[in-house]
Structures are given as structure tokens and as C-alpha cells.
Amino acid sequence: xxxxxxxxxxxxxxxxxxxxxxxxxxxxxxxxxxxxxxxxxxxxxxxxxxxxxxxxxxxxxxxxxxxxxxxxxxxxxxxxxxxxxxxxxxxxxxxxxxxxxxxxxxxxxxx
Length: 111
Description:
This protein is an alpha+beta fold. It has a single domain, classed as 2-Layer Sandwich (Nucleotidyltransferase, domain 5), CATH 3.30.420.40. The protein has five helices and three strands. The protein has helices at 2-15, 24-30, 32-35, 75-86, 92-100; strands at 43-48, 53-58, 64-69. The protein has a three-stranded antiparallel β-sheet, with helices on one face. Helix 4 packs across helix 5 (92-100). Pfam families: TsaD (PF00814). It comes from marine sediment metagenome. This is N(6)-L-threonylcarbamoyladenine synthase. Its EC number is 2.3.1.234.
């Protein structure tokens, strides 16, 4: 994160353009509007990634309220831990998806 910020500052300085900060988690929520621009707010949004697992109330004008969050690990960290255990690469989500694409379907029956 620090290296990325330093690089961004250097690029903006060299090009004489402003550096505009963005809220990373808010960007996760706004990604939904790219394909669905007509989503009406307020909405409840689940952000579940490698670093964040929280439920937000997304209001108008970039306002949001945290409704709940994990107390320890983010949900995505589970995938990273599984991938590390299986020695299939990092980050875990794409690594697990990559090996699961060519896997035969297995049915599990629960009683």
C-alpha cells in the first residue's frame, strides 16, 4: 500500500496533476453500479473480499454506515488459507477457481 501510494504521488507530481483519494471499500460497493447504473439507494451492501467482510448501508452522496463486520478474519482469508494448505498459489480465490474449473462434479448427499 505504501509503495502504491508513493508511486501515485510521484506520477501525479511529475505530470503536475492532482492526487485524488478514494475510499477503497466504497469502491467495492460502487463497482455494482458499472453494470447496473439504475440501482436506487439506500441499499444494503455486503463487501466480502480477502481483506474485508462487512455489511454496509449505502446512502446517497457517498455516505455509508457500517451495519456489521467480522471480529477477526475476513471471509476471503479462508480461501487464502485453503490455497496455502493445498500449495496452489496466492491469492486463494483465483487459485481455487483455476483448479476447480477442470474438476469433475462430485455430489455430496446430506441426511
